[in-house]
Amino acid sequence: MNELKAREAAEYIQHSTATIPKIGLILGSGLGALADEIEQPVRLPYQSIPGFPVSTVTGHAGHLVIGRLEGKPVAAMQGRFHFYEGYSIEKVTFPVHVMRLIGVETLIITNAAGGINKTFSPGDLMVITDHINNMGFKPFLQAKSYRPSEIYTKQFITLAEIVAEKIGLKINKGVYVGNSGPSYETPAEIHMLEKLGGDAVGMSTIPEAITAHQHGMNVLGISCISNMAAGILDQPLNHEEVIETANKVKIDFIRFVKEILRDL
């Protein structure tokens, strides 16, 4: 990671807004509508921030939005970067380094994922309790501070359960599997991941979660089950289905995350 580049990006953001965000949000495919709820927003296109990559995937708007949400100062990424877009792992995790420099202490990471667990249905929300890194790489900064068993903050998982019960929202908990992409998995691969203990599969989140943990941030991960993974149902997969399901569930998703923010 280029510390100088990260500091340059952080200084640009800090000169663009008086808000010091304490909570960061990474909003996955089709879930960027939450950023539209931010009050008094400062909206920075990624291409205007020094060192930031640009989102190329449908459903990722490509803005950093800073303001207040449920009274809390936040920085929300409307879209993320993926290894399969051709970006290095350093570029994928660059925004997390920058968030740390501008004051973020808690990172909420969201994604659209394929359901492996047969009790799940498209449109379900899953709080991530752990992950299986099947990407073939991992970001690594500070070996002494890296405790992989503690990446997803237990207190925040409990808080998410309490909030879901309070608002009458059914949620699942489970293990997220991260693959490098860009192709969807084969039915045989999904069967293997099921045997390994995976509940949902996607192509993001893990690099950002590890990096945030290395920086001492609290981490909460939430997956929107946008489709059932290959071989679970007898139907083809496509990205349009991912976006369509995310749009259908966005009201519950927004309400859920806003309630979590209110109780943090």
From TrEMBL:
Q: Name one GO molecular function term.
A: purine-nucleoside phosphorylase activity
Q: In which pathway does it act?
A: Purine metabolism; purine nucleoside salvage
Choose any GO biological process term that the UniProt entry carries and state it: nucleoside metabolic process
Q: What is this protein called?
A: Purine nucleoside phosphorylase
So what does this one do? The purine nucleoside phosphorylases catalyze the phosphorolytic breakdown of the N-glycosidic bond in the beta-(deoxy)ribonucleoside molecules, with the formation of the corresponding free purine bases and pentose-1-phosphate. Cleaves guanosine, inosine, 2'-deoxyguanosine and 2'-deoxyinosine.
- Look up the record and report any one GO term of the cellular component aspect: cytoplasm
Q: Which UniProt keywords apply?
A: Glycosyltransferase, Transferase
Which family, according to UniProt?
Belongs to the PNP/MTAP phosphorylase family.
Record the organism: Pueribacillus theae
Catalytic reaction(s) noted:
a purine 2'-deoxy-D-ribonucleoside + phosphate = a purine nucleobase + 2-deoxy-alpha-D-ribose 1-phosphate
User: Where phosphate is bound, by residue?
Assistant: S29, H60, R80, F81, H82, A112, S204
Report the EC code(s) recorded for this entry: 2.4.2.1
Q: Which SUPFAM superfamilies match?
A: Purine and uridine phosphorylases
Question: Nucleoside phosphorylase domain spans which residues?
Answer: 22-262
Pfam family for this entry, one: PNP_UDP_1
* Residues holding a purine D-ribonucleoside: E185, N227
